[in-house]
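To: structure desk
From: M.T.
Subject: fold request, one chain
Message: Could you run this one when you get a chance? Sequence is below, nothing fancy, just the single chain.
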Amino acid sequence: MSDLTPLDKAHAAMEAAPEDDAARLRFYERLADAELFMLLEKEPEDDRIAPEIFETSDASFVLVFDTEDRLAQFVGRVAPYAGLSGRVIANMLAGQGIGLAVNPEVAPSSILIPNEALGWLADTLDHAPDEVEAKVESFLPPAGLPEVLITALDAKLSTAAGLAKMAYLVGTTYESGSRSHMLGFVDVVPGADGALAKAVNEALTFSGIEAGALDVGFFAASDPVAAQLARVGLRFDLPEPPKAEDHVPVTPGSDPDKPPILR
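Reply: Done. Structure tokens follow.
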């Protein structure tokens, strides 16, 4: 079906292989990266929102949808909502005993995420990679990495619009004699190093790849190392940032550094 969303497809893959941990991880990654539309009790007041709570006999859920049309279909009337990323929602609800009702009754990806799973997602997204320094001896073409990781990196970097110009995946040898792989980012926006390193770490985590299987480096285009990366590396072009005139903040939460406050 042409109207299936990325979340629908990830959910279908998870449902088709209930014993496949990688499929389940990919669904949660899509959930975290998606823009979700949260149904509210009333219009936001400054930076405060009051989500509509769906109660069952033993649990409470906030209702979210991965398209505005699905929210409208569910509600059947004009209703207030907030557009937030899945990761912001997970962090906002973590520890409050509230789960997530995703696309209830209106999509094939309809699912109830219990509060324990939402807490796990928030903890996973909060994990930052370790920072170490090591001197690279040589760069080599990448080899032996699973295709699932390449696909995950491509998908993850597509969400990092404007944070860097490009990245190269290369093999590395270090002065210590150890071998690894590196994703080298070129022309990174000042202050974006941490966000990009965390994005790579998430790609590893949600691919089921052991932590530490991929190093991250940051280089200016004028750095001779960037030319070495270009000669042997697999290139990923990051999307251009959205034009300022095209960006219209819809609701509280559009600034990731200032998430909305629950009432």
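Reply (cont.): The longest strand covers residues 164-174. Let me know if you need anything else for the meeting.
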